[in-house]
Design goal:
This protein is an alpha+beta fold. The protein is built from 12 helices and 27 strands. Among the domains are: 32-96, no CATH class; 381-490, Sandwich (Immunoglobulin-like), CATH 2.60.40.10; 494-578, Immunoglobulin-like (Sandwich), CATH 2.60.40.10. Strands 11, 13, 14, 15, 17, 18 and 19 form a 7-stranded mixed sheet that branches. The chain has a 4-stranded antiparallel sheet with strand order 20-21-25-24, with no helix packed on it. A hairpin with a 5-residue loop joins strand 14 and strand 15.
Length: 594
């Protein structure tokens, strides 16, 4: 989560997608001045600066003292950041996750209907799988013969390929090799075909060639700034074990240090398995979620912590497409300089899953550098939208920035295919509007697109969906989806009729916005160029007192603007029609001439 993610829905009220509560964010927060600071939730980042335990300017905004002898106090306070700096109002400075009895509670987003139904990818995109999808989940409960071991090494018909055995390239969630608990897990899983399990730990089975015995490596930075892998001799408990998720999602060589030794990487850059999942609050007691610990953890006693539970949401199709653009120049699979920040960017990352065994002194791994069939590059990731909304009936230019939007893929024999995205807008009724993109509109990190004026008013979920051309099937396989971004197509303000009496103007129409934000520069009514005071405001009717000058009425609604002649003319400062003022002036002038 970043403040940009938050502002995608909670930003400028001109673009804030419904049904999020409207209101210019600074105004909404300034109303908290002199109200008590909640110590557990939405607390100010600097509460100790408050003299009485209530919100003040300096409890939210960091300030610096500037010495200036010309000032009465010898100086003055100045904002440490300019108000134009995005971090000046970083939502996450204050909006921290709730806790109950010391446990994190599920976030408001994880209590939505989608989250309760385990439709993960509808918000997170192709970084995760839906737990309800028919992706490759080697789950015993879903096997053709539930309650028994999987296929025990047998090659199954095509229809059963979704369920597959543990293998030498199947990672473990954590480092369970120290006390041999992984052997117990294998024996439990394959209780009805124990010889299949033994191939992975018994040196007398198949000459031990498939024994799972991952080596350990330390990682140190050389003089050129590249991280090098250094083998740790057997029997020394140092470095990181390969062949498991903790190879990257790891506590660090020196627990307690902010930065992992010799890597320059802070531990919080990635997060451990536990912190990444427990921090969501999902499944924890008292979280408010329908889910329990069994969402991730197997209910067996003792629990079988294999990769099987992880693959319910992290299957092959998603884990091979996760990468971070550390340099900001687009993602180059296999050649990113910084390891541990994704799954495909650096060869060191591949060791986490695929360096799970060794034969003699030769360390085995999956074939690196080979592009797997159907590979489309990293998952598209949206960082910012140039606008979060548009007015219906008006074509709007949109620039999307992020990463993973375009990938050129070498498929061998001198042939290259392209993975090019399109835009998908999913309406509140689940209807999908697809907007095609030309190659010229797309780079690895940006997309320029014109949204058509024909889009109907609605609150949409906007996705960047990437597809690779398949020469065998023809067309593109649009299977990689970015996370959702809210996008509002708002109805334009429209005036149907205007009536007035004694300076009070009643305007009927549509698209004004349901709530008037008092003091807002973006909403109001003008009568012949002068501001009118608002008596009542709804989406279809406004009553305003305009005093003099109501010949033309202009409504500046939440999303659009409309003007119309008042038909009944204007009034003077006393609320009388303008003709009265003119007649009175002429009458007085004519009598003075007599």
């Amino acid at each position: 989560m970043t403040f940009n993610t938050c502002l995608g829905c909670h930003g400028d009220p001109k673009n804030a997608p419904a049904p999020v509560k409207i209101g210019y964010l600074p105004d909404r927060h300034h109303l908290r001045v002199d109200t008590p600071i909640d110590p557990d939730y939405s607390a100010s980042p600097y509460p100790d600066l408050s003299p009485d335990g209530t919100h003040k300017c300096i409890t939210c905004h960091k300030v610096d003292w500037v010495e200036d002898s010309s000032k009465p106090l010898g100086g003055y306070f100045k904002f440490a950041l300019e108000p134009t700096d995005p971090q000046f109002r970083d939502c996450l400075n204050c909006h921290k996750q709730k806790k109950k009895d010391g446990r994190l509670v599920a976030t408001v987003h994880h209590l939505t209907d989608k989250a309760q139904k385990k439709l993960c990818y509808q918000c997170h995109g192709s970084l995760v799988n839906n737990a309800t999808d028919d992706h490759r989940v080697p789950d015993q409960a879903n096997a053709p013969d539930p309650g028994k071991a999987r296929h025990c090494g047998k090659v199954m018909p095509e229809g059963d390929r979704n369920f597959y055995d543990i293998s030498i390239i199947t990672p473990w969630p954590g480092d369970n090799y120290k006390d041999k608990t992984w052997q117990t897990m294998l024996d439990t899983i394959y209780s009805d075909c124990p010889d299949f399990a033994k191939r992975y730990y018994d040196p007398n089975v198949l000459d031990g060639q498939f024994n799972i015995n991952p080596p350990r490596y330390k990682y140190e930075m050389d003089s050129d700034g590249n991280i090098q892998a250094i083998l740790v001799p057997d029997g020394i408990d140092e470095g990181r074990r390969t062949g498991n998720c903790e190879h990257c999602h790891y506590q660090g060589e020196n627990p307690g240090d902010d930065v992992q030794a010799n890597t320059g990487l802070a531990k919080d850059d990635i997060g451990t398995n536990m912190s990444n999942h427990h921090s969501t609050g999902v499944g924890q007691l008292g979280s408010g979620s329908v889910h329990t610990c069994s969402l991730c953890h197997a209910p067996e006693d003792p629990p079988i912590f294999t990769i099987r539970g992880c693959e319910v949401c992290h299957a092959i199709s998603t884990v091979h497409a996760i990468e971070f653009d550390a340099d900001g120049d687009g993602i180059d699979p296999g050649n990113e300089k910084t390891p541990f920040m994704g799954h495909i960017g650096n060869d060191i990352n591949c060791r986490g899953c695929h360096l799970n065994f060794r034969t003699g002194q030769t360390y085995q791994a999956s074939e690196l550098g080979k592009i797997p069939p159907g590979y489309q590059g990293p998952v598209p990731s949206v960082t910012t939208l140039s606008t979060d909304g548009m007015i219906a009936g008006t074509a709007t230019d949109l620039t999307i920035t992020g990463s993973g939007f375009y990938t050129a893929i070498d498929i061998g024999d001198g042939r290259t295919v392209e993975a090019i995205p399109r835009i998908e807008l999913v309406g509140s009724d689940n209807s999908v509007t697809e907007i095609a993109l030309d190659r010229a509109d797309v780079t690895e990190t940006s997309i320029d697109v014109t949204l058509p004026a024909s889009l109907k008013p609605d609150t949409y979920e906007l996705y960047v969906v990437k597809g690779r051309y398949d020469p065998e099937k023809g067309g593109r396989d649009y299977s990689q989806r970015s996370g959702a971004r809210s996008f509002l197509v708002a109805p334009n303000a429209n005036i149907d009729a205007v009536s007035c009496s004694n300076g009070k103007v009643t305007i009927t129409g549509s698209g004004f916005g349901n709530t008037f934000v008092a003091g807002s520069d973006s909403m109001g009514v003008l009568g012949d160029g002068s501001n009118c005071s608002i008596e009542s405001w709804s989406d279809t009717q406004i009553v305003a007192n305009c005093g003099s000058g109501t010949g033309t009425v202009t409504v500046d609604g939440l999303f659009g603007e409309a003007s119309s002649d008042a038909a009944c003319g204007g009034t003077d400062d006393s609320g009388r029609p303008k003709w009265w003022s003119i007649w009175s002036w002429w009458s007085s002038w004519s009598w003075s001439r007599r």
